[in-house]
Amino acid sequence: MLTVWSHPESYVLPPEEQGGKASPTNSEDYKTPPEDDPMTECRTPDVGNSKLSRYLTRSLKKAELEGKCIPISSTKKDDLQTKRIPRRSTKIGGVYTPDKRLKKLFQSCKKPKYTPLADLEKAQFQEFQSILREKPAQEFEIVIGIHVSNKFFLSLARPTNWVSTEHISVLISMLVRRHGRNYLSRRCRFVDYFSIAGIISKFAEFEKASDKLGFNWGGLVSFSFTGKTPRRNDKKVLLVDVDRVYAPMMWGKDHWVGLVINLTCRQVEILDCNIPLNESDNEVNKHMAYLLRALPHVLAAFSPPSDSSHPEEDQAFSWVRPDNIYFNERSGDCGPCA
Description:
The protein is an alpha+beta fold. The chain is built from 11 helices and 11 strands.
């Protein structure tokens, strides 16, 4: 009998084939390279079962009589079975931008070092700005999967310019990409603006629902609270893996604030860079009422069962607004500050 191994662990040539000379593969320690090894292209393909007897040498027949089973290979093309081996493409790498100067300027494909927001190099920004101004309408996809134009960045960088929800989403996605894993290790998570807005927009419908525990809060809320957000599938669940949530929120139609939602102590810290704009507690309550009333119910819907019979009623949320944070004196910059 002749046994052919499709993927031999080691391949030792018979003495007659070697001619008495040492070979780097003629060793019991030699192993075939793994599928993803760069040397995989040089590997000998598998051998078929047809026409094998034509290539049996004396040493192979002798080994066969002695009851040994060794792999053989043929160099003839008609006897080779080609096998497609999946490998990562080397043609596309890094971050795509339509202008090579931007790629050279930032080299975003490299993993950024973990630091807070670094100081801006003004000379580098001036070069960046001049390149974008050449073609402000040019569109492309950035690394977080959002299609934007050069004008988008010019608008975001301009002082006192009101930023849209799209700008806020990009800023949050940037924070997640650069610092999200570090924050998750501390049981913290960033949440997009649309998740908070989704809770508030559905609260009136929720109050009319008979089955409050089974109420459908929508995909965006579900993704954020269960950790299955598209492009951010970290599989971390609130109150199980996460105790603190950072989220942006818009008050009315003209003011952004940052929220720090502490799930364990049931308190929301409001990072407001312009307190005099909504100075009284009554004004803050008007903006926060729906969210504070909805949060216990949302947590009860997406979190593991609690020992309490009505956890959503027993553990209400409160708010606090620290006053020792940065004060923004320029109107229109509340979004990036938040």
